[in-house]
Hints:
Number of strands: 10
Number of domains: 3
Helix content: 25-40%
CATH topology of the largest domain: Arc Repressor Mutant, subunit A
Largest sheet: 4 strands, antiparallel
Distance between the termini: 32 Å
CATH superfamily of the largest domain: Winged helix-like DNA-binding domain superfamily/Winged helix DNA-binding domain
Strand content: 15-25%
Radius of gyration: 22 Å
Order of helices and strands: EEHHHEEHEEHEEEEHH
Number of helices: 7
CATH architecture of the largest domain: Orthogonal Bundle
Amino acid sequence: MGLFACGPNAREPIRWFCFTFVKSLFCRCGHTLVNLDSRDRAILEILMKDGRASLREVAARASLTTPTVSSRLARMQKAGLIRGFVPVLDPAMARGVRAFVRLRVPTGEVEGAARGLARLPEVDGVFLTVGHGNLMVRLATNDLQEIEAFVNRKLAGKSWEVVSTEVVERTVKDERKMMIPDAALLALKCDFCGQEIKSERPFNIRVGLTYHYFCCRTCRKSYLEGHRSEIELARRKSKSETLRS
Length: 245
């Protein structure tokens, strides 16, 4: 079973997950292009090679402090660079039938078609391509009948051409590795006013294990004033847990 792990802090037990980068062609408007510096890249590279590493271990390997790793990882998650945490199963151990369906869709319908297909439960991948078709769908189904139903029913009546349907006989390798980008489109919003944060180094505060980000000092100050009691409670709780450990 190929898995990554990432615990929310250095003391908590490892949880087995993998993280996926956002790779969207449809949601780029209004986002800020931010360069990932050497520290961001080091954190991601370490976790991609050894997902079981705790934040403390990542910090040691990257020559950073644990709070730095924690804050940068939290920012990348909140901004949408790291989309989510999901278990990764070994395809050889999984049940069901996988298939790839290649489509040729009219140019003006491609984005709408991709969005609609992505919402279907049997679809676990949608790719815009060049070549014999311009859209490829990856299916994960229980049996061949479900693949047939997808092609003959869910694709029926549309102005799309089914170029090919290829059923996977056996999986030799299935690692969804992605290259770490030099720059990323981040959608980080201010936790007080809701405005998009344009700065590469936003104002922030930490409440327990959660980081909050702000577009300016005024928003940060207003948030602190409005949440003073819960912030103080979280800090006392964190201090108490540190003393017990």
